[in-house]
């Protein structure tokens, strides 16, 4: 298969349905890639069905999600490019570190083991999960107000509410608890092989106004990779955590496509 037909696997994060990648998948298909956007374990085919049955989403941790996407990758004709957002970005980093992908793009990726900054805005964004320890075994939904702080703070309230209604679903609490304990756990599932010099190239993308994954986290993640394989950073200073789904998504997607072209992918 030629590079122009390379598979691209889109990996969503917490609280967004995989169909939120639809505009990206269309664009990448138009550019000659073969996109797929599978949901996390237990996520139903539609937003409505996912909201109706949160029990199938609950209880899945980071290792479960990594294994799920590793199986998806094994069924592809060649190693894909991975594009992940938020916790999907962390999953993409882990799979790349395991040499299961040709390259990865991690957009506002969740905190990995070894990254120490924990800004207050990040704590506030995830408080709906952490306020109850039992949420580790549940799936938790955001209110429109919580979504606006965590995702939609850099767009209008109207647009944030529209995104909330269109794309949000309950999310498992377990990955957040695992990530929070990562630096206190010897074998944390949030650990990424950042020292793998043989892996494919990695692009980190960050929004300068992101409350959920502030730039301090992304810059600290970059330092974990310094000195090994290709690792680049692109910043969108005026964008928040909704940068993959809001009205400015195309700017981010085009920057990712340009970077892939530079890598010969």
Strand-and-helix sequence, N→C? EHEHHEHEHEHHEHEHEH
Superfamily at the CATH H level? Answer: Alpha/Beta hydrolase fold, catalytic domain
Q: How confident is the prediction overall: mean pLDDT? A: 94
Distance between the termini: 12 Å
Could you say what the CATH topology is called?
Answer: Rossmann fold
Total strands: the figure is: 8
Number of helices: 10
Helix-strand category: alpha/beta
Shape: globular
Strand content: 5-15%
Strand order of the largest sheet: 2-1-3-4-7-8
Number of domains: 1
Name of the CATH class = Alpha Beta
Quaternary: single chain
Low-confidence spans: pLDDT under 50, at least 5 residues?
none
Would you kindly provide a written description of the structure presented here, covering whatever features stand out?
- The protein is an alpha/beta fold.
- The protein is 38% helix and 13% strand.
- Helix 3 crosses helix 4.
What order do the helices and strands come in, and which of them pair?
Blueprint: E1 7-11, H1 22-30, E2 34-36, H2 47-52, H3 62-74, E3 81-85, H4 87-97, E4 103-107, H5 120-130, E5 139-140, H6 144-150, H7 157-167, E6 171-172, H8 174-180, E7 202-207, H9 215-225, E8 231-236, H10 249-262
Parallel strand pairs: 1-2, 1-3, 3-4, 4-7, 7-8
Antiparallel strand pairs: 5-6
